[in-house]
Amino acid sequence: MERWFIKNKKFDYKKISREFGVSEILAKLLVNRDIIKKEDIDIFLDPQMNKLSSPETMKDLVKGSNIILDKIKKNKKLRIVGDYDVDGVMSVYILYKGLKSLGANVDYVIPDRVLDGYGINIEIIEQAIEDKVDTIITCDNGISAIDQINYAKAKGMTVIVTDHHDIPFKEDKGEKIYISSNADAIINPKQHDCKFPEKNLCGASIAYKLIMYIYQTYNIDQNKDEFIEFAAIATICDVVDIVGENRIIVDNGLKALNNSSNIGLNALIDICGISDIEIGVYHIGFIIGPTINASGRLNSALQALELLLTDNTQWAYEIAKNLRDLNDERKNMTLEGVDKVVAQIESSKIKDDKVIVVYDPDIHESIAGIIAGRIKDKYNKPTIILTKGNDCIKGSGRSIEELNMYEELSKCKDLLVNFGGHPMAAGLSIKKDSIETLRNRLNENSSLTKEDLIPKVYIDMELPIEYINYKIVDELAILKPHGKGNPKPIFGAKGLSIQKGFLLGTNKNVLKLILISPLRGQRIEGIMFRNTEEFVENIERKYGSQQLNHMLNGIENQIIVDILYYPDINEYMGSTTIQAVINSYRLC
Q: How far is CA 39 from CA 10, 35, 45, in A?
């Protein structure tokens, strides 16, 4: 069951249409995405690199770059401490390659997901001291490592934090008091006294900003777009909003990626079977990203970094093949884990909880977050999956828009060994005997209502199919690339008759419909790629088997349907037609 809502944000669409030379349909789509200021619309419609905000307005970025340049001049040893996901790997790559090009004495470490856990720890600091490292630079982590960084400072080290995660806080009489470490520079736009306008950059984009500022300030002759494709990959995979600065990064990064000179990336693209197509957000988010991530999940993220750094084509293909195999293994482990967790939920009182907390010691720690996401999608409930770690119980959570998981876990931090993350995702460590207490407290304190737990679909506008033409389809392409913050538009059309339905594909899992408008009798082809079996079953349940057979055989029938759709072009055997790609439906 879904609840459908039409977005109805009040604004002068005609004014946007006139000023920017777009249709009122596109103007409304911009407003629906809260893109209403002139400068935001300008960036969205024309995302050029020269429209990126000046990096020096980011708190401590200038300070941090000055420290780094001074350390390079003095030949001090620098060490980058990254993270094991895509954002972390790209962040390390950007910083390492950038600093190396300046002649820095720099190396890097990436914690092992299982053995070390997330972020910088005391062991990493102790090893750095032993290796006579002068300066640690964190990327995609460090903002919550208060004790660890203060320990490094007490040992006489210089520490620069680059991170994008939420600022840790403690509560005093209901008031949030934000806390930070004694790092020499903390570069994170989410700091409340940071004047940088874009607060939702990923970690790699912050690393990109830092390196680009150093290049720019010191007139270093480098290609300013050298790292944009890596920042774009991280932006997409870290699921930040692809608007504003992020839209510029992704749009230009995709162009760079499709003409990449990076040997490792090109080998990975080839091994994944996507070398002959234009790579977009989907290919990065669902093919390239997960394959890179597989190294940090089941092996070491250093392997993915080595892929990006190598100049040896043969070795690049060896690594790429290994990453692909690891990702295939990860997929199988995920399917098995999801089935086990669903079985546990369905056979217990957990199914009635508003916040799902499941412990399964056999789930691989590295895929707990993926499984949490799948369970969250299935039940539309915030979900935490816990499993057995080396020294305590480890877990990952994924949330829905109605619940800020980071804040809810903050209220339970007395039960947790460690935690961190975002409103929509978090990682945590906990002792086994505290699991049930955590589950109870999260549910008892939850303000979620039954309505909150019903999946919601937000429709951009009602658009009868007779209004669809090639001009509109072409104009909608301006909105690409799509992603979080800029989803593919959803249009609604009511009361359509189904002239005929066809089940297509080897497994009969694609449904093609010939749809008739109730107003002017206009026809359009509809295509449905998911839930086709459910669709057929629901028609039979509501209208009976005779009406279903009539539909499938093109005989006049009484079946009426409302659809949510996106208009697209279907090219087949040299001809093109407009089709409605159906996202959801409602039988009338």
A: 19, 9, 10
